[in-house]
Amino acid sequence: MRFTSPQTLLTLTVAATSVAAAPFEYPLPDGFPTPSPAQIAAIEQLAGGTLPNGPSPANLTKTAITNLHLLALNEFFETAYFTELLANVTNDVPGYDAGSIAPLDKTYVVDALTAVVNQEQLHALGINAILAGAGHKIIKPCEYEFPVTTFKQAILLAQTFTDVVLGTLPKAQAIFAADGGDESPLIQLFGSVLAQEGEQAGFYRYVQKKTPSAAPFLTGGSPSFTFTAIQAFIVNGSCPQPLPDIALTTFGTLNVLTTPEAKNMTLDFSVSGSVSPFNNSIVYLSGQNLPVAVPISNVKPVAGAFQFQASFPFESGFANGLTIAALVKGAGTTFNSTDSVAKATVYGPGLIEVD
Ligand SMILES: *[C@@H]1O[C@H](CO)[C@@H](O)[C@H](O)[C@H]1NC(C)=O
Ligand SMILES: *[C@@H]1O[C@H](CO)[C@@H](O)[C@H](O)[C@H]1NC(C)=O
Ligand SMILES: *[C@@H]1O[C@H](CO)[C@@H](O)[C@H](O)[C@H]1NC(C)=O
Ligand SMILES: *[C@@H]1O[C@H](CO)[C@@H](O)[C@H](O)[C@H]1NC(C)=O
Ligand SMILES: *[C@@H]1O[C@H](CO)[C@@H](O)[C@H](O)[C@H]1NC(C)=O
Ligand SMILES: *[C@@H]1O[C@H](CO)[C@@H](O)[C@H](O)[C@H]1NC(C)=O
């Protein structure tokens, strides 16, 4: 997977090859992921609020469990990421002088990230409590590596994966709603988490002097896109639970080679396997619009991979912020939902940030 944006072209191929720092490992000094009651109270203090104290569902469907596993996996990744980012800013690691970006000052950024780290810990603990409460396996954290070495890169990446989460949580809500019964209270609970992540996304955009709210309707996703995206940061083989036990698909990597801009343009892509204009297309998910499928062209083998091009019709109604690209099976097919795109996907998600 590759994350791209107009300002910075980040080559975020799987981190293991390019990152010198040691992988991030739990536990944290505050006891997380298994804090004592006193430690939980301290985390809640720093998070600005407590874990929910209402009853949790006695019964969960298989699909709900899969989604809770995905969400917990994501919260452990986010907690690791923001813990490391907070440490980098606090310790004045070169490239992390957050105070140099007017109108920020270091204390404000440290306070903001401290809240986020503790809030993400409570998200993870809360999801595991829902799983355990219904008698299901909880998620345990893995080891992580992050392909960023400056504050600016780190904030852009935080914006990008938070945008992915903003498209994932509505999907989880839809699943809980379809299941009904015991799961109904989870719709509101995750509505509050969704809004919380939206507050974070506004901060990450503000730091980059982007309009805090990107678009009227943000981009949706599909659980397997998020599942694949998170794995780019997980050290291979480091998860206590085998990831294939989570009933989602891991797609091949779709690299977006061009820096996208907020206009109609052509993008270059690459994938590891052979593709053809007769059998494949690129599909974009942007805003709450129907998926947009475009043909691919100029397929050529390059250094053991396959490069090709596709148009990026941004001016036909795409949303600012995140657009998700996927290389799908079939040419000339139209898709009417994000899930139907995921079902046809071979390589993806390509995460494209514009503005
Ligand atoms: C929920 O789980 C309980 C305990 O496992 C079981 O007795 C009950 O039948 C379940 N209810 C539904 C609606 O599945
Ligand atoms: C923290 O800084 C180290 C050293 O530059 C870097 O390797 C790591 O990716 C950074 N992590 C984050 C989340 O910014
Ligand atoms: C991760 O490990 C699996 C199983 O050992 C292997 O098939 C895969 O190629 C590895 N992936 C990376 C990116 O190293
Ligand atoms: C398209 O897919 C079909 C069926 O899988 C295959 O036989 C054919 O060779 C493919 N065409 C190209 C140009 O790759
Ligand atoms: C952008 O591309 C779309 C789709 O091809 C087209 O409908 C639209 O007219 C183009 N807009 C501009 C300003 O070129
Ligand atoms: C999407 O398309 C499928 C198959 O073409 C159809 O069964 C389904 O009802 C459509 N869904 C929507 C929301 O239009």
Automatic annotation (TrEMBL):
The keyword Signal applies. Keywords: Signal. It holds the Pfam family Ferritin_2. It comes from the Eukaryota. Residues 1-21 form the signal peptide. This is Sexual development protein. It comes from Imshaugia aleurites.
